[in-house]
């Protein structure tokens, strides 16, 4: 009796396996027939190739995102530097009187005189209508000129040689740099 049950069980498993194999063959041949009918043969190879391509593209995307972040940082740094330079340019344009012009050479024993020089062509009302193309607008305010000369008269002569009155320059004030509270020579 047990022998018959075992024989029946083995036969059932064998038939089930055979049925599974037949079903699997039907499915495989059915898929191929459908692929041929709809013109999608080789789709599995295409899917595998596209999956590989997709992983490569994703890796490339990650690299590009990293590069973009680095470049964004560089662009922000450049823009920050540009703003700083533009601010410095505006400040230097506004602060024209901070520029100190030097005449002569600093020699031991030679005093330094400080002259304040303006240009009357720039300060006049005529400049407001038509700016002068050859003279910087900063000359409307007194500009500092340091002169090394033996006497204040020599210093005045050097300033007038460098900035001639014929071109509209005039000395508004001149003093010895060592005597800031001392005598001041006013322009006449």
What's the helix and strand layout?
Layout lengths: L1 H37 L4 H52 L5 E4 L8 E8 H4 L1 H5 L13 E6 L3 H11 L6 E8 L7 E3 L2
Parallel strand pairs: 1-3
Antiparallel strand pairs: 2-3, 2-4, 4-5
Structure description:
The chain has a five-stranded mixed beta sheet with strand order 1-3-2-4-5. The chain is an alpha+beta fold and 188 residues long. 58% of the residues lie in helices and 15% in strands. The longest helix has 52 residues, at 43-94. The chain folds into two domains: 2-89; 96-186, no CATH class. It starts with a helix and ends with a strand. The protein has five helices and five strands, in the order ααββααβαββ. It is rod-shaped. Residues 68-95 form a coiled coil. Keywords: Coiled coil, Membrane, Transmembrane, Transmembrane helix. The chain crosses the membrane at residues 6-29.
In short, what is this structure?
The protein has 188 residues and is an alpha+beta fold. It is 58% helix and 15% strand. The protein has 2 domains: 2-89; 96-186, no CATH class.
């Amino acid at each position: 009796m047990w022998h018959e049950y075992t024989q029946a069980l083995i036969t059932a498993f064998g038939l089930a396996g055979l049925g599974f194999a037949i079903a699997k063959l039907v499915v495989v041949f059915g898929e191929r027939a459908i692929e041929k009918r709809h013109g999608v043969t080789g789709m599995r190879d295409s899917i595998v190739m596209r999956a590989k391509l997709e992983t490569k593209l994703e890796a490339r995307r990650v690299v590009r995102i990293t590069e973009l972040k680095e470049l964004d940082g560089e662009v922000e740094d450049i823009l920050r530097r540009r703003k700083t330079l533009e601010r410095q340019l505006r400040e230097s344009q506004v602060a024209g009187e901070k520029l100190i012009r030097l005449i002569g050479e600093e020699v031991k024993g030679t005093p330094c005189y400080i002259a304040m020089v303006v240009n009357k062509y720039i300060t006049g009302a005529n400049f407001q209508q038509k700016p002068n193309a050859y003279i910087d607008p900063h000359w409307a305010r007194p500009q500092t000129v340091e002169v090394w000369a033996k006497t204040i008269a020599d210093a005045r002569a050097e300033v007038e040689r460098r900035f001639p009155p014929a071109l509209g320059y005039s000395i508004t004030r001149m003093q010895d740099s060592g005597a800031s509270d001392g005598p001041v020579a006013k322009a006449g």
